[in-house]
Design a protein that fits this description.
6 strands; 10% helix; 1 helix; globular; two-stranded antiparallel sheet; 2,3-Dihydroxybiphenyl 1,2-Dioxygenase, domain 1; four-stranded mixed beta sheet; mainly beta
Length: 109
Amino acid sequence: MSDPIPSGVHIGHVHLKVANLERALAFYCGVLGFELTQRYGAGAAFISAGGYHHHIGLNTWESEGGSPPPPGTTGLFHLAILYPTRADPMPCGVCNGPASRSTALRITA
């Protein structure tokens, strides 16, 4: 086995297939506070925090109008977004993170 990945590594971004782009933007931008950085046609959008080109890519390229995957199949099960401090505005009713200096927003399907 090669050396383990360093503990300071961060993931740059993630791309998510969504059923409805406008509904996804309303959640990620309207509720969580991400900023829309770019749209790519009618089927994709890129959002970020702090001016990065994009942390999350959202697209409907093979998923428009789709339904969630049935239980027991593959798909994204959990996503955590770490807010720098508890003083930062948190979306009402969606945070189930630990009480600490930082707050983790956990989104679980």
